[in-house]
């Protein structure tokens, strides 16, 4: 109950985003960002290890994902059950997650139990047991998820697009691996996977709550100091490899799922903010977006459609998705193509731009709604090579975007001839064109 109350506490963040971020370096050389908030005896700690599942060793796809899921399944002298009991007894919460670009570890702890909780987390990171019973149980869960995805039109559509777009690059295959690759993983593979990703040269840290800079520095040295200095080499950058067209994957379902996309741009591209606002107007603005207006409101083709920039660390794309009945897939694709073309040739209106700015600047401060979300934002900013001042200047960057900026960026980035659609279903009157 105490932890739940502490987790619900909201740090005050006005629209101009006044938040005091301290840049901390531990005695052992580990960098972190800290926001001190001593009104509640509670700390949120976020760790990110860059590279994520993209650092799987050759022929070991799914090893980092499986390894990450096993970090809470026993450590040092504690088996899975003992570890769970110890965590519950400390009223702490740990989360271990793996994505294409990072392994994320979250900890939420009360100040009075902080040292003991961090020692428990240290054991999970440094001394995971990978007991046979735990490995087989979690392996079965992963395989069940893979089998489920193989029957899920949404997963099939997204993975088919990724495979076409990224080929042999890790982005081109599912991060949880295949049934064959996961089934073949050994305990030695999991130990090796841990050392490939959980290393000090790729860790980013955000902390928010009842802790000082000195205390955080000492905590980080204790928690991470004995990890390997270096992990596996980072993946190479990859450019999206699809051309315009339609790929149809036959699947018996009354409603087709469509994933579509083209090249994007990096987070540090000078035109990122015009592209960001432009994408919101095109398909990221809920019911106010162009695609929602044209595809749902005017024609009733779908319940929802969205388009988003994906500036991943080693490749970038502009992606969208929509579902519709098999009889209207062709019409839906035609509308999306038309809106792509209209944006490329006409840009956006002043009214659309002002509406987007109002939403995007108003929504930004709402993200800072507690210790955990703020710690997550801090670590994400570091991974994107942003400075602490970004929190203050971000809305200024949105407001600085002009209609002329978007017209120029749309003409350069939006490419109807490259836009590719992957359709999973049994669309009527629609032939593959790739």
Q: What brief labels describe this structure?
A:
43% helix; 5-stranded mixed sheet; alpha+beta; 6-stranded mixed sheet; 434 residues
Care to give the gist of this entry?
With 434 residues, this protein is of the alpha+beta class.
Percent range for β-strand residues:
15-25%
Give the N-to-C terminal Cα separation. 57 Å
Number of helices: 16
Strand order of the largest sheet: 1-2-6-3-5-4
What is the radius of gyration computed over CA atoms, rounded to a whole number of angstroms? 23 Å
- Overall pLDDT score: 94
The main β sheet shows up as:
6 strands, mixed
Oligomer: single chain
Spans of at least 5 consecutive residues whose pLDDT stays below 50 are 1-17
Residue share in helices? 40-55%
- What sequence of helices (H) and strands (E) makes up the elements? HEEEHHEEHHHHHEHEEHHEEHHHHHE
Give the total of beta strands: 11
Overall form? globular
Structural class: alpha+beta
Topology, pairings included?
Elements: H1 2-8, E1 22-25, E2 31-36, E3 42-50, H2 63-69, H3 80-89, E4 93-98, E5 102-110, H4 114-126, H5 132-149, H6 153-166, H7 179-184, H8 187-197, E6 203-209, H9 213-224, E7 245-250, E8 255-263, H10 272-284, H11 290-297, E9 305-312, E10 315-325, H12 329-346, H13 350-363, H14 371-383, H15 390-399, H16 403-413, E11 420-425
Parallel strand pairs: 2-6, 7-11
Antiparallel strand pairs: 1-2, 3-5, 3-6, 4-5, 8-10, 8-11, 9-10
């Amino acid at each position: 109950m105490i932890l739940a109350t502490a987790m619900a506490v909201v740090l005050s963040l006005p629209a101009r985003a006044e938040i005091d971020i301290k840049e901390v370096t531990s005695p052992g050389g580990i960098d972190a960002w800290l926001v001190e908030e001593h009104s509640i005896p509670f700390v949120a700690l976020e760790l990110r290890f860059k590279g994520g599942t993209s650092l799987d060793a050759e022929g070991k796809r799914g090893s980092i994902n499986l390894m990450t899921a096993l970090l809470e399944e026993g450590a040092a002298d504690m088996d899975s059950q003992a570890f769970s009991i110890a965590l519950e007894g400390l009223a702490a919460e740990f989360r271990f997650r793996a994505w294409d670009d990072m392994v994320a570890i979250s900890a939420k702890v009360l100040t009075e139990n902080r040292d003991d909780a961090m020692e428990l987390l240290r054991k999970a990171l440094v001394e995971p047991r990978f007991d046979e019973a735990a490995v087989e149980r979690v392996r079965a869960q992963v395989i069940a998820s893979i089998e489920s995805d193989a029957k899920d039109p949404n997963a099939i559509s997204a993975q088919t697009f990724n495979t076409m777009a990224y080929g042999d690059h890790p982005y081109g295959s599912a991060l949880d691996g295949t049934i064959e690759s996961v089934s073949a993983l050994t305990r030695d593979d999991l130990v090796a996977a841990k050392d490939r990703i959980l290393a000090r040269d790729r860790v980013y840290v955000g902390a928010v709550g009842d802790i000082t800079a000195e205390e955080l520095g000492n905590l980080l040295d204790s928690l991470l100091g004995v990890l390997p200095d270096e992990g596996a080499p980072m993946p190479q950058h990859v450019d999206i490899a699809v051309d315009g067209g339609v790929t149809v994957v036959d699947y018996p379902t009354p409603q087709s799922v469509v994933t579509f996309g083209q090249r994007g741009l990096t987070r540090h591209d000078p035109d990122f903010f015009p592209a960001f606002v432009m994408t919101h107007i095109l398909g990221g603005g809920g019911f106010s977006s162009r695609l929602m207006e044209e595809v749902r409101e005017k024609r009733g083709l779908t319940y929802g459609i969205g388009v988003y920039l994906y500036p991943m660390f080693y490749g970038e794309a502009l992606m969208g998705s929509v579902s519709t009945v098999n009889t209207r897939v062709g019409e839906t694709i035609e509308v999306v193509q038309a809106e792509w073309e209209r944006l490329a040739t006409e840009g956006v209106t002043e009214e659309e731009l002002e509406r987007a700015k109002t939403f995007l600047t108003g929504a930004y401060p709402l993200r800072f709604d507690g210790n955990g979300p703020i710690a997550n934002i801090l670590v994400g900013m570091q991974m994107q090579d942003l400075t602490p001042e970004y929190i203050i200047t971000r809305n200024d960057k949105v407001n600085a975007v002009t209609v002329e900026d978007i017209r120029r960026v749309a003409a350069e980035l939006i490419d109807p001839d490259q836009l590719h659609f992957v359709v999973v279903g049994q669309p009527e009157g629609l032939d593959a064109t790739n």
